[in-house]
Amino acid sequence: MGDTRKLAELTGPQTLEVLGDDSILVVPIGAIEHHGPHLPLVTDALTAESVATAAVSAAVAAGLDVWQLPTISVGKSDEHHWASGTLWLRAETLLDTLVDLGRSVAATPARKLVFLNGHGGNVAMLGVALREIRRHFGLMTFAMPAMRVPDEGPELGAADEEGIGIHGGWAETSIVLHLRPDLVRTDRLVRNVPAGLGAWEQLGFNGKPVAFGWLSDDFGPLGIVGDATTASADAGKRIFEHSTDEAVAALGEIDRFELPPRTRLS
Amino acid sequence: MGDTRKLAELTGPQTLEVLGDDSILVVPIGAIEHHGPHLPLVTDALTAESVATAAVSAAVAAGLDVWQLPTISVGKSDEHHWASGTLWLRAETLLDTLVDLGRSVAATPARKLVFLNGHGGNVAMLGVALREIRRHFGLMTFAMPAMRVPDEGPELGAADEEGIGIHGGWAETSIVLHLRPDLVRTDRLVRNVPAGLGAWEQLGFNGKPVAFGWLSDDFGPLGIVGDATTASADAGKRIFEHSTDEAVAALGEIDRFELPPRTRLS
Amino acid sequence: MGDTRKLAELTGPQTLEVLGDDSILVVPIGAIEHHGPHLPLVTDALTAESVATAAVSAAVAAGLDVWQLPTISVGKSDEHHWASGTLWLRAETLLDTLVDLGRSVAATPARKLVFLNGHGGNVAMLGVALREIRRHFGLMTFAMPAMRVPDEGPELGAADEEGIGIHGGWAETSIVLHLRPDLVRTDRLVRNVPAGLGAWEQLGFNGKPVAFGWLSDDFGPLGIVGDATTASADAGKRIFEHSTDEAVAALGEIDRFELPPRTRLS
Amino acid sequence: MGDTRKLAELTGPQTLEVLGDDSILVVPIGAIEHHGPHLPLVTDALTAESVATAAVSAAVAAGLDVWQLPTISVGKSDEHHWASGTLWLRAETLLDTLVDLGRSVAATPARKLVFLNGHGGNVAMLGVALREIRRHFGLMTFAMPAMRVPDEGPELGAADEEGIGIHGGWAETSIVLHLRPDLVRTDRLVRNVPAGLGAWEQLGFNGKPVAFGWLSDDFGPLGIVGDATTASADAGKRIFEHSTDEAVAALGEIDRFELPPRTRLS
Amino acid sequence: MGDTRKLAELTGPQTLEVLGDDSILVVPIGAIEHHGPHLPLVTDALTAESVATAAVSAAVAAGLDVWQLPTISVGKSDEHHWASGTLWLRAETLLDTLVDLGRSVAATPARKLVFLNGHGGNVAMLGVALREIRRHFGLMTFAMPAMRVPDEGPELGAADEEGIGIHGGWAETSIVLHLRPDLVRTDRLVRNVPAGLGAWEQLGFNGKPVAFGWLSDDFGPLGIVGDATTASADAGKRIFEHSTDEAVAALGEIDRFELPPRTRLS
Amino acid sequence: MGDTRKLAELTGPQTLEVLGDDSILVVPIGAIEHHGPHLPLVTDALTAESVATAAVSAAVAAGLDVWQLPTISVGKSDEHHWASGTLWLRAETLLDTLVDLGRSVAATPARKLVFLNGHGGNVAMLGVALREIRRHFGLMTFAMPAMRVPDEGPELGAADEEGIGIHGGWAETSIVLHLRPDLVRTDRLVRNVPAGLGAWEQLGFNGKPVAFGWLSDDFGPLGIVGDATTASADAGKRIFEHSTDEAVAALGEIDRFELPPRTRLS
To answer: Cβ of A13 under 8 Å from any chain F Cβ?
Structure first.
């Protein structure tokens, strides 16, 4: 049990010994959802857990007091609810799950809780939960994306994605080709980039000012948006390493971040 | 009743006549919350409603089939729950309110529902609601910020805000000075820019990759983050007009945006 | 900001200055719902807000410490859920909204909260909420109808309504003809008085001992119960003024009403 | 099993035989709550069940197709939550209970559901439930008070109650003296009539236009409002018989009442 | 009121006098549900209440401080939701009901709460509620079956039930033949023992390691599992007396059982 | 991807190919909770997942069409809520999670869903969920314990546990010593067997007729009930292998078990 950084591998009383005000607890959260005919359902959970494990290890090596909690595999994937194999929580269930987790963590000595998130569909409710947990239990709460695509100048791999390779495309396929190549059906790599969707100025996916409520079959029966045909394990390796580096950098800032402690009853 | 674009000023049967598949319904949503010692509680609701009214009018003049619904004045302002005067809905209540509204709209002939949002604390739950409403009722759903600060090169007014003038600072104070100068206590303009908060690379407010769960008194007793001392009605006018222009542009894209119709029962 | 009695036009800190134990906060609550082919959807919200504004003004002039909160426009209109244009909250959502409002108000120095209600469908849940808010937050809570029809001896206008002009009939049409004549389609005034419904001794609308669960299309496709054809702006003026007078009288009693203070945590 | 009118004493398949579109199901609903030092906790449940049993019997004798369901003993008594012995459901629990009952009844051939209510604190949520059940399940729904005090000219017994003998006073004490004299502690009959409360014009208990949210200890530690000292078994007998007569009259109207059938899915 | 052990027959203040730390409150809980063509809907509620009444009486005679609360007649009978006459609470409603009851009891001086349960479908949620009530309100909580079939060596009556006479079979029919023979349709006694179901080693009803989610019409249209044709009032008498004896024995152990008191706020 | 039996490692479309009416989906469910000073928090999740993996593999080898879903690590551990390190879902959250999972699985071709449960605190709500999922979605649903202690005549290891080694005692410690000896703090093995608790006839843990609501600190500060001091890896190996064998036998019965298909909408 000596060197583990998996908190659940400790005993309860050990958590009282090893955790303190400055300890950072990291919860990987992903999804089990349709990712097209080429990627496994587990893609987002795999990515979140893999980045978390690598980042926690590196952060500890760098002297940070970081601990990893069990992965929340199933998230809010209602946009893929139509697809066989998708496991999803309703919005309320995910919020309750996150708040319950916050209540649980508040019983440990740790005060910093970080969600490392592998699924875009979780982002909004994580945003809600961060504040709920802070308000109810006084924890400092954080959420960050598991996958960070490096800025490689002309992003060759994603060249044909028109900036909207958000699900099952170049980046996700590449990272799974790196992490678990056996789980990618390379004979079925597909491309689905809805014409014109990337060209809107106001409306679009992440980063555009106008958000919209979409289901993944709004863009055709493949249920993906992106181009998997240009993915490669090499690109996946670069993405994974960059993601890990950024996560470690983020944990460093979280470690240095301070706010007045709060303790309010739920 | 001839020229109104307030949907609630029509009769029920008239909505069957004037609305169709291409009609766009705009719901302003704001907040009634503490905005420091200088700004009124109504700031966000006022901004959302004012921009909505101007944008709907301009969009209609430009030939779009746009209608305005009653403003949701009270939003999710739990970050200001500690402050007298803040009226706030819990996360679940806001989600239920938005989904109920979507259910109601689904009984009209309109298929496009837009939330024009004046309060940052509503963004996350709006993101959840967009998808809930699309999945349950088949509507096309959109959300966009009411306030859009123009990019004026060196943003003189916000110069001292270190990029984090998110609540009660230069932009909000300016826009209220423009819209309702009688509601600004210009004798109590304050500045509260937490040292260093804008300098983090990973962690921060909107736009930084690491989100965090904050309450407005985490940054001191003033309950604002920004610099109101440099605000001006002129800047407010520019912000308001830019916000309106952008909202009109967004409505134009929404008008042209098409997805296959869905009708699923709740 | 000097003379406003709109609480949301104050700053947060001002609410600490101007409010005290004896302050009375008035929340207009209405509905956006089908009112037949002649009346606007906004009828109930319009009535509640108009009476509230007039009554608050008069009460303040009479020396009472009364403040107006933003109108809750959308209420529980499930009886009109079938009609295009109706916006409605489910029962649970309305209760949560009211309780959340009570929680918010409990953070101000005021102890008296009044709902001025323009929609019959809200009455029952308001009754529930009054007690919830008192029990959870210790406020003194009140609810009263916005519209009070004066007793004019032989009620000529409502003569043909058999005492059941409860929705879209003489009184409501008259009051809108007074407040916003531009919103009444006088070319479509209709009458729908279900034969015999007023003649029951036990069973009926307000005032009869046996309540029943009705939807507005239970009484035919018009969705109203009453006679709009005899409405007039003059009658509307009398109703409006009487409603305001009664509201002021009620606020006077509320001002003098005292119960031991309670403060319980939610 | 021949003559029973207790529906629960039938077998399931028998309900298919004996019930039809015109059958009326009566659910007594009461409360188990503090009623002062002289009346039993069961007062309201006892009253509701006793009146229901007598009224169903009389209605059947008069040729109506009426059936009695099991009594809901515990209701919404949050106003007495402070008092040992009160058993109470939260508002949401009562609503869920009533809606679940409606869902259950919708699986029988009966279409008319009547709540005979012995507790004022249930009235508001019953009002909500009547409409929920009609909207969700298409049943015709009714609610009526179990206790009806006859108009005896100078109401001698209640003479000192100033019209507000709403809880534990002359009428309730009398009816229990009639139904179960062994359960009345006649050595502890008390009077608690808050000075002036009956004199308000606007504000007050049932019948006054301004409702307020009260807890029973708002009026002193006795937890009653009324005058038990003048109660008598004779008066109780008259009240009980009048209540039964009125309930039978109401069931007659309900029997003749018709609305178009609805069947909507929940 | 002298000798009653029905708590609801006391006044509120009396509960403060007669109850103490060692008092045991017994709540019978049953069901109103389809029991085949021969047994009344009330079977489970009748059994629970009858055993409770007998056991409380005997326990008091034996010197225990035991009190009976009103019966919860309607339980979680979703497995019979398809059958006319079944009245059922959804899972959430039953849990809320039980927790609300626990909250109510926590306001009395008693610390021990016992559910005497006549319906198998309630068992799981009772298990949940016992812990909820202990955790929230600090009560000591217990649940036990109302019906206990004596071990009579070769269980002649149930000989043909293959050990799975769980609903509407020999034991239930016998006990109703004993308690209320007028409610049994002896001309319609039936047998439905699904072939082979009792022969599984792993999978089966109570007692087998693998539980499964069944609805009562999974086993054919009769909606029972068991053999009513061999039932007798004599067997019912033996079962009833044994059930009562066991309940008394259980109350004796509950009386002697001690845990450290807890008081946590909900 | 060839031989995996982890469903989440397939693509969505593959699930349509490999799953059919006879496919069995196995969900391990455990807990992350205090297990005394010697066992890791992950004990129950580890046990469930390990037995599931071994059993699925063996069942597939035996020709069954069985697939493993991601483990639900966090369960209902409210009995350990007081202990640092316990992660727990509230009762409602667990029920929602299970029902959401059932809804998800209903979108695949599989019709049989099995929960392999490593934590006693999950049993009751699993029982509720099995029926909810069957009623709402028509699946055949099953739950079984992950750990099955072989009947070894005189159970030497558990000799001192008086039959109540339910948490952190001989069996659990032994199985973790077998599966992950590095996670057992063998220097802190403890014994806590509440005197007399095993001697009750009516009242007790699993198997006794009277259930009670306990928290793990009801039995002292160690938070365990059992005797870890006699645990051994050898015993753990026997328990693990027996558990796997029994799970395979159960899957065999589940494979052969048939009920009429149902499809009801939620």
So the answer is: yes
